[in-house]
Amino acid sequence: MPEALHPAAPLLAGALVVSVLPRRVGGAVALAAAATAVALVARLPVGAEARVTALGLELVWLRSDALARVFALAFALLGALGALYGLETAGRRLHVAGLAATAAALGIVLAGDWVTLYVAWEGLAVASFVLVLDGGARARAPALRYLLVHAAGGALLLGGIAWHRAAGGDALVTALPPTGPGALVLVACCVNAAVTPLHAWLTDAYPESSPTGTVLLSAFATKAAVYALARAFAGVEALVWAGVTMALYGVVFAVLENDIRRLLAYHIVSQVGYMVTGVGLGTPLGVHGAAAHAFAHILYKGLLLMGAGAVVHATGRRKLTELGGLARAMPATLALYMVGAFAISGAPLLNGFVSKSLVVAAAEALHRPVVVALLQLAAVGTFLHTGLKLPYFTFGGPDRGLAPAPLPRSMLVAMALAAALCALTGTFPALLYALLPAPPGWEPYTAAHVLEALELLAGTALGFALLKAKLGGEPTVTRDADRLYRAVARWVLRGPAAGAARLADLLEARAAALVSAPVAARPSRAPSPVGYALLAAVGGLGLVLLAAALGRG
């Protein structure tokens, strides 16, 4: 039956076909495959389920319910918008990786059992690694660090699943206690959700991809992790404060950032913090608010990064201190970017106003005034940076004579469609509410709530007008927790991996001596970076499985 076809199927088939086609034809095929996935998700009925038995395991490779469909539809839409955005600029490798990443994200949220979820989880890590690599030579080191972090997270997830099943736990994706094997799964989800201080892989890697690659990366890993948290750990109090910390941490570091795409990457961390908070609150309003905010965020953050990517594509520059005066040359880009900026800032008539309100309302309903106040404080920082600082210093100010190149039409069309979806689901919130598992029972368009939002925006704008001279960015590199990741990566590269290489050389020499075959002298060489990463992943997996076995005993 058509409704039983997994929405990832046309994406995977498309990736195989695109891999052997010329770039232009491949881009069109990628767009067609992504559009087909959108149609399949839209037609996927609640309650659809498909199983298969493999290697003695019964795998529920498709399970559709209302919560899964919210995330699946957002992933499919962004995958299609990303394919359209990169239609005239992206290479074959990016289109293949983009289709694979979209398919893997759909596989995660539509998985009915833990093994299927894990396979899709690892598939997303590999596809995302390739997307980061698409940024060129500058992206290689961040891509390797991305792979190392996600290899460790994947090892934790597999270790938790193995321990859970060995202890007699359910094979299906259901709620877990945040202790024992559940603790490993929880930490793995927090890695992918970029929970502070485990977030620096995101702000390190995402800005280094190509413009289209960054748009696609922004959607999948963090929101798929939010979905897993909602499935398994709704109501865990620690997530409330982890989310609040993320919301504030992201906006604080955005103050310091000079790179326009890294500034927006910090706001991914911040906005995912709202979702994590909603999951931690645990009420239907909180969890459904997190899902609604994930849907809205995927659209408006994709739009924001499309705008920033258009600037990078047209000018070849990415620093606030190198940009300025682009409004006259790029008016359409500015207008469409501002739709995303007002959406993320919670302006009325746009989707962020609706979705963010649900999470805040859930905190208010539980009488959590400190949580409410801190989330509102984060909202001030969001508008300050994405709605004022970035557009002012990029599009306003003196003309620097940059002479931006014309944008491909597909870029502008993708941005216009994303902006239209932000406005449609914000002006008519019933469209967004209809996707949720249950009506939230919250009316965003009350006079008091609209006035509160407008006051926050106006007050922030006034503050920016007074302080803008100090907010223009400095030509420096922001130091964050990625310094720790870099140190760990260097230790892996220079320590165990190098030792393993020397051991391999020694064993090779011994084996050659046993058969009396001379071994030619050769200069010492380091293993490839991919070999390092695989070694780290295998070692981490072994440690986690050992811990699981000890815990079981």
Kindly summarize this structure in a few lines.
The protein is mainly alpha-helical and 553 residues long.
Secondary structure layout plus pairing:
Layout: H1 8-18, H2 23-43, E1 49-54, E2 57-63, H3 66-85, H4 92-109, H5 114-133, H6 140-166, H7 181-192, H8 200-205, H9 211-217, H10 221-232, H11 237-256, H12 260-281, H13 284-315, H14 331-344, H15 351-365, H16 369-395, H17 409-427, H18 429-433, H19 447-467, H20 482-494, H21 496-514, H22 529-552
Helix pairs in contact: 1-2, 1-4, 2-3, 2-4, 3-4, 3-9, 3-13, 3-17, 4-5, 4-9, 5-6, 6-7, 6-22, 7-10, 9-13, 10-12, 10-13, 11-12, 11-16, 12-13, 12-15, 12-16, 13-14, 13-15, 13-17, 14-16, 14-17, 15-16, 15-17, 16-19, 20-21
Write a structural description:
The protein is globular, with a radius of gyration of 23 Å. The protein has 22 helices and two strands. By secondary structure, the chain is mainly α. The chain has a domain at 234-471. Helix 13 packs antiparallel against helix 15 (351-365).
